[in-house]
Amino acid sequence: MSRIAVIAVVALAAAGCGSSTAHNASTTSTNSWVAFSGCMRSNGVPRYPDPDTTGKPPKRSAQQLGVSSAALTAGQSSCRRYLPNGGRPPSRSQQQLVVTQGLSFARCVRSHGVPNFPDPASDGRIPDPASVGIDQGSPKFQAANEACAKYRPPYMPSNAAYNDYARSHGR
Fold this sequence. Notes:
Elements: H1 3-15, H2 19-42, H3 62-65, H4 69-79, H5 92-111, H6 139-147, H7 159-168
């Protein structure tokens, strides 16, 4: 995971774990990413994309964006103020909060009938459920995801977000 993505996850997690707080933090973060994307386009990276359904811009190399590495780096430096946590790496306590939130969500999902749901990895992120054979569109998973919404880390999609993604990607 990129440093920017880690910062975004930690900033969202630090904002709160309750469902309405997490939703507000997610909205705030998405707005920050929209501002960051616009800033990048205004600062020498005209093809920099807006956030995708996860709320963050898709990863693109300088070559994919049609600019030099120097232009991409300069744009990132100019626009850092829009990044969660000002683009600084997360503190130890912020990292621990991400791990704790992910672990609470994983335990909750398992207690709601999805026994093979994975714990977070050492970086605090829960691996993609599909990587362990979990269908996020199944009624059982969706019921557990809804029941555990107050613990859901910001990078894990809600049922509505997952369903929108699956629909747009022909799943």
